[in-house]
Automatic annotation (TrEMBL):
Residues 4-373 form the MnmG N-terminal domain. It is an enzyme of class 2 (transferase). HAMAP family: TrmFO. This is Methylenetetrahydrofolate--tRNA-(uracil-5-)-methyltransferase TrmFO. Its EC number is 2.1.1.74. It catalyses: uridine(54) in tRNA + (6R)-5,10-methylene-5,6,7,8-tetrahydrofolate + NADH + H(+) = 5-methyluridine(54) in tRNA + (6S)-5,6,7,8-tetrahydrofolate + NAD(+); uridine(54) in tRNA + (6R)-5,10-methylene-5,6,7,8-tetrahydrofolate + NADPH + H(+) = 5-methyluridine(54) in tRNA + (6S)-5,6,7,8-tetrahydrofolate + NADP(+). It comes from Paracoccus onubensis. The keyword Iron-sulfur does not apply. It is found in: Cytoplasm. Its main location: cytoplasm. Its cofactor is FAD. It comes from the Bacteria.
Length: 445
């Protein structure tokens, strides 16, 4: 049996390789790192998480991301299995020790006899064979040029942002306190998963002034000054209005200052645990294009972070993706070259979970093809099906931009039409239907 070739060992490529091997089909996984580095990656490990350590909500009843988690677990997904094994307390979210997580994914794939590794850069799209391109937001320049030549269109671009990471022992806990928003979580550890830094109105106003005045890094030649709204730099949010941050990542609702319970904060900066040891915390939602010197000055204005030591400062980079509605069919194949499937963020999904989910689908579809079969996507009443439907035809090609999974992509329930049903009724109905339909999809394979 001819092997399936995968370019890119990120979240999507790693999940695709696992699904193919588990189907009994050989895989060759091509990864350019560490021989060819990127500015964001630090290792040559598979499934390295560079922006955040969170897979977001794990609630599979009330949240579309949680539903996607459920589907990936139901399908025997490697990414969810390793995330569960290396999870950290994070309230209702699924956060992981990112280093241990990627090392575990790498070890699992290398121990699978049907998976072979080719540590080299692929610079041209192959003409023949069964291939999955899962090169992610940092597709190399030469391969990106080949993709543009084959598709006949320029890659679109937005800017992925990286939030800074703080050493936990440099946070002043006489000012900050531990609490998940609304005390969410089943255990005391989960209910105390975030560190919160409060601001008065005067402190907030001074912070906004400094943020707007701070020196920003210049874009590299060829970069476009456009952003994806789901991953805006904090200074761009501040430019949209002085109250924007206070209603976004700095919202104070659902939090009570343990040191001053009768005093309501005007704004709150949250930090989320970033490793199993609890020595590192990332500043939630604080993606930035500020220069590094400016970052340390501005972020140390946050109460509790006056003496913060930074393990990593923020950054921002270009992310190229296909105009998938015009280029891909519902099997995620390039219409002009059906031997090529695309998976992950390069298809125009946004987020770790969504990227890995598209890798899972592409892997199962490629394995079916290798066996002489055809596997359709799951119904678009499911999380995976809704995403595939969106990127391969559900979205308007003229305005196509990266999309997270959300209930807005799910078809409405007939019994919910014509009434004023709230989320507490609609969302469980969406996820119950999704689970039933996803089980049906798995059953026919």
């Amino acid at each position: 049996m001819e092997p399936v070739n995968i370019i890119g060992a990120g979240l999507a490529g790693s999940e695709a390789a696992w699904q193919i091997a588990r189907a009994g089909v050989p895989v060759i996984l091509h990864e350019m790192r560490p021989k060819v580095a990127t500015f964001a990656h630090k290792t040559g490990d598979c499934a390295e998480m560079v922006c955040s350590n969170s897979f977001r909500s794990d609630d599979d009843v009330m949240n579309a991301v949680g539903q996607l988690h459920w589907e990936m677990r139901a399908a025997g997904g490697l990414i969810m299995a390793m995330a569960d094994r290396h999870k950290l307390p994070a309230g209702g979210a699924l956060a992981v020790d990112r280093e241990a997580f990627s090392q575990a994914v790498t070890a699992t794939l290398r121990n699978e006899p049907l998976i072979g590794f080719r540590p080299a850069e692929v610079t041209e799209l192959p003409d023949t064979g069964n291939w999955i391109i899962a090169t992610g937001p940092l597709t190399s320049d030469r391969l990106a040029a080949s993709i543009r030549a084959v598709t006949g269109t320029e890659s679109l671009a937005f800017f992925d942002a990286i939030a800074p990471i703080v050493h936990a022992d440099t946070i002043d806990m006489s000012i900050a306190w531990e609490q998940s928003r609304y005390d969410k979580g089943e255990t005391e550890e989960e209910r105390r998963a975030y560190i919160n830094c409060p601001m008065t109105r005067d402190q907030y106003e001074a912070f906004i002034d400094a943020l707007l005045a701070a020196e920003k890094a210049e874009f590299h030649e060829g970069e476009m000054a456009g952003y994806f709204d789901g991953c805006l730099p904090i200074e761009v949010m501040a430019e949209r209005g002085r109250e924007t941050l206070r209603h976004g990542p700095m919202k104070p609702i659902g939090l009570t200052n343990a040191h001053k319970p009768d005093e309501k904060a005007y704004a709150v900066v949250q930090l989320r645990r970033d490793n199993a040891l609890g020595t590192l915390y990332n500043i939630v939602g604080f993606q930035t294009k500020m220069k590094h010197g400016a970052q340390t000055q501005v972020f140390r204005m946050i109460p509790g972070l006056e003496n913060a030591g930074f393990a990593r400062l923020g950054g921002i980079h270009r992310n190229s993706f296909l105009n998938s509605p015009t280029l891909l069919d519902d099997r995620m194949r390039l219409r002009s070259r059906p031997n090529l499937r695309f998976a992950g963020q390069v298809t125009g999904v946004e987020g770790y979970v969504e990227s890995a989910a598209m890798g899972l689908l592409a892997g199962r579809m490629a394995a079916a093809q290798a066996k002489g079969n055809d596997l359709p996507p799951p119904a678009f009443t499911t999380g995976m099906g809704a995403l595939v439907n969106h990127i391969t035809g559900g979205a308007d090609a003229k305005t196509f931009q990266p999309m997270n999974v959300n209930f807005g992509l799910f078809p409405p329930l007939e019994e919910m039409r014509g009434g004023r049903r709230g989320r507490k009724e609609r969302y469980p109905a969406y996820t119950a239907r999704a689970k039933e339909d996803f089980r049906s999809w798995l059953a026919v394979q």
